[in-house]
Write a structure and sequence with these properties.
The chain has helices spanning about 35-60, 120-150; strands at about 5, 20-25, 65, 80-85, 85-90, 95, 95-105, 110-120. The protein is α+β, with helices and mostly antiparallel strands. It has one domain: Alpha-D-Glucose-1,6-Bisphosphate, Chain A, domain 4 (2-Layer Sandwich), CATH 3.30.530. A six-stranded antiparallel sheet has the order 1-2-8-7-5-4. A two-stranded antiparallel sheet has the order 3-6. Strand 4 and strand 5 (about 85-90) form a beta hairpin. The radius of gyration is 14 Å and the shape is globular. This is DUF2867 domain-containing protein. Pfam families: DUF2867 (PF11066).
């Protein structure tokens, strides 16, 4: 079962001035030797075209400057900023806020951490509107990891 957890203090790749940070974890049984990047790709592949289209639409509406969804980038238009076997840092620049996601494979779980650095009052207002949808989406994508692992 996916749970919202306290973001760890030891993660690399998150913005220093994040105005918002959250973390979700999927249970230990999914940490099966796959790399963090492999998990990111599997989760997005499992999400399906409708979920990906909704994500892209919201991101464009929020002013994110998406990249070409071709390797090494992800299907949702985010760039792979840093990659190690146990964690991958994903990101995209935005006009009003800059998000970063760290997907980390831990011994006990798969962890998905999001940090957002808003730019000024407009950035904080836009993120306030986007954040509830973000939380639903991240829970859905983290649950996808459980589905993938069950196969």
């Amino acid at each position: 079962m996916v749970q919202r957890v306290r973001p760890p203090d030891d993660l690399e790749g998150l913005p220093a001035r994040a105005g918002y940070v959250d973390a979700y974890a999927a249970p230990a049984r999914i940490a099966d030797g796959r790399s963090a990047r492999a998990w990111a790709d599997l989760i997005l592949d499992d999400a399906g075209p409708t979920v990906l289209a909704v994500i892209r639409t919201v991101q464009r509406g929020a002013g994110l400057l998406l990249v070409t969804p071709e390797p090494p980038n992800l299907a949702v238009g985010w760039a792979v900023l840093h990659e190690e076997p146990d964690h991958v840092v994903l990101g995209v620049e935005g006009r009003v806020y800059t998000p970063r996601v760290v997907l980390a494979v831990r011994q006990e779980s798969l962890l998905l951490v999001t940090a957002v650095e808003p730019r000024g009052l407009v950035g904080r207002l836009v993120w306030t509107l986007v954040a509830p949808l973000h939380r639903v989406t991240v829970r859905t994508l983290t649950a996808a990891a459980e589905r993938v692992a069950a196969r």
